[in-house]
Write a structure and sequence with these properties.
Elements lengths: L21 E5 L3 H11 L4 E6 L6 E6 L4 E6 L19 E4 L3 H10 L3 E6 L5 E7 L5 E7 L4 H4 L5
Parallel strand pairs: 1-4, 5-8
Antiparallel strand pairs: 2-3, 3-4, 6-7, 7-8
Amino acid sequence: MTTDGNISVIGPPTPMKPYLEHLNINSTDVDETVRFLLTAMPEFSIRGEGGGEKAQRWVHVGTEDSYLCVEDRGATERGPHRPYVHPGMNHMGFVVTDASALAERLLEAGYEQGATYIDHPHRHRYYFFDHDGNEYEFVQYLSEDPSERNEYES
């Protein structure tokens, strides 16, 4: 592709499919958020951690391809955001291989369970809350066919 006759844009031979690399969240207790994530998904690991001028402490926890950045910016209590009411994040969704085992781990660790949807023939979903009240969805797909995984009714 040429833009003006002098500059050529060279791209990859096959376009990369976009994906979410990371999500950055604040926490009142970074260690507790990391414990929640590692309990839910033991496949995750701590990729790195540190501190800086703005974040007193940060931890990247996830996989080689994606992660959550959990930050301590000095908050000691949850803010006024009400999910599904105020603008902002409502929940984070993760695809997992064994949702019922994950739910059992979180229940045994004392985490609060939200909604559970296991009646769908092609997916099971469990919702849990961390210590800050952040909601996480964990979905196990039982079909490789994307058209069966979700329902989009008009």
